[in-house]
Amino acid sequence: MILMKIFEASKKTLTTSEKKEITSIYEELKKISSDDKIKEAVSLVKAKVTRLERSDDIHQIALVTITKVLINEVLEKSESGFYMRRLALISIAYLCDPYDVIPDSDPEYGYLDDIYVFYLALSEIRRMNPDIYARIEIAYARLNEDE
Fold this sequence. Notes:
Layout: H1 2-13, H2 16-31, H3 35-42, H4 45-53, H5 58-75, H6 82-96, H7 112-128, H8 130-146
Helix pairs in contact: 1-7, 2-7, 3-6, 5-6, 5-7, 5-8, 6-7, 7-8
């Protein structure tokens, strides 16, 4: 369960109102009928990941790692299904949005809201398909070992 530890920890740092606001945004993103809007936000992924890869911050490293894993293990695999791929896209889109609940420019807490959105998506993926979640967890651990 190494995967969820850092993502679950974000819940402890965020205020109740921040969690409610982030969850509300997450739920609204799930309702968007156009994949184009989500894909538009995801178009910034490569630049964001490249920037975060240079960091030694544990949260930023976790975000880079889980983004890569979701791309490889969910987005690129048809057996993941439409809804699960959509959850992955939503979390990645939120990560790429510089105007989210806690601005990424905040050096101490800027990425906690992004981590919390991944936590929400991963929790839902785990409920929907424990086998795919296990695959994500294994890939995450493997990438963490390599870095």
